[in-house]
Write a structure and sequence with these properties.
Layout lengths: L1 H24 L8 H23 L3 H12 L3 H21 L6 H21 L7 H21 L4 H20 L4 H10 L1 H9 L4 H4 L6 H25 L2 H6 L3 H12 L9 H28 L1
């Protein structure tokens, strides 16, 4: 049990690091717009995930889901909604740093773990350890301070903190919360992705003989696939509440990217990040204690 838990924690942290890398990586893809970057990302992410499923022997998850769709055609409606929910998040993730909304999106990621903890506690009836309760209280204080400092919540913040949790709940309800479900989510975004990628003004730059854009876009797809696979695998290994709390690794990294891109944090906002760092520290202590318990039990 603890071995699976530690693997889930490691995969969650890896996903956060990769997502943080992608947040900055978009700035290297000029002159592509946010919509074009989203389109190319989806076009290259699906083949990368397909190769991973084939290489890992997990392709049966896709075939099983195809079988379910033949038996339950109404499931297509749920998959379309699931694809829309994750697609709009992935679009926003690429659009925000190019349009001055990096910090607003970061605030949404600060609030999202709290929403997921509440869902885990009251919907899935999960119990929190004492260290997790302390981490939640610290994170809640930090998030409340951030909302107060921001004077409210922007639409981008709300879209993140409410949209992603419902995406995971929906996948759980449909029993598509595995890599096969992710493959279908990516598949259903292809028509829109193709339109955005192939009709944008940046297509001419992609075709330039001296442009590095095609290689950068290919790497974008590989990074995206690796991040999504790690994220979905960790969600399968961890309790919903702990999976949500580990989401605090990502906004800390996103804030760092926002600072690199020229956005600023006022001294008044520092208590938010101090509270989040302390909460992450408590989760780190709990993971270490779990590892010690596992070794002692061998």
């Amino acid at each position: 049990m603890y071995s699976t838990l530690l693997k889930g924690v490691a995969l969650s942290v890896l996903a956060s690091v990769l997502f943080g890398t992608l947040y900055y990586y978009t700035t290297l893809l000029q002159p592509l717009s946010g919509q074009e970057i989203f389109g190319w990302r989806m076009l290259f992410t699906l083949p990368a995930i397909t190769l991973f499923l084939l290489a890992s022997g997990e392709w049966h998850l896709v075939k099983n889901l195809f079988q379910r769709l033949r038996e339950q055609p109404v499931l297509w409606l749920g998959l379309v909604l699931s694809s829309f929910l994750v697609g709009i998040q992935l679009w926003l993730f690429l659009w925000a740093p190019l349009h001055g909304h990096a910090l607003n999106v970061s605030l949404g990621y600060f609030l999202m773990p709290l929403v997921m903890v509440l869902i885990g506690r009251f919907y899935y009836r999960e119990r929190l350890s004492r260290l997790q309760v302390m981490a939640v209280l610290l994170a809640a204080a930090g998030a409340a301070h951030a909302v107060f400092q921001a004077g409210g919540l922007a639409w981008t913040s709300l879209l993140v903190c409410l949209g992603y949790p419902y995406y995971f709940v929906l996948r759980s309800q449909m029993k598509t919360d595995h890599l096969g479900g992710l493959w279908f989510d990516m598949l259903l975004t292809l028509p829109l992705a193709g339109y955005l990628a192939l009709t944008g003004s940046g297509l001419s730059a992609m075709g330039s003989a001296f442009s590095a854009l095609p290689w950068l876009v290919l790497l974008l797809g590989l990074l995206s696939a690796a991040a999504m696979v790690a994220y979905i695998l960790s969600s399968r290994m961890l309790p919903f509440s702990l999976f949500g709390l580990l989401g605090y690794v990502e906004p800390v990294l996103l804030v760092g990217v926002a600072l690199i891109l020229g956005e600023t944090i006022t001294p008044e906002a520092l208590p938010t990040y101090l509270a989040i760092w302390l909460a992450l520290g408590l989760l780190g202590v709990e993971s270490w204690l779990a590892y010690r318990r596992q070794k002692a039990g061998k």
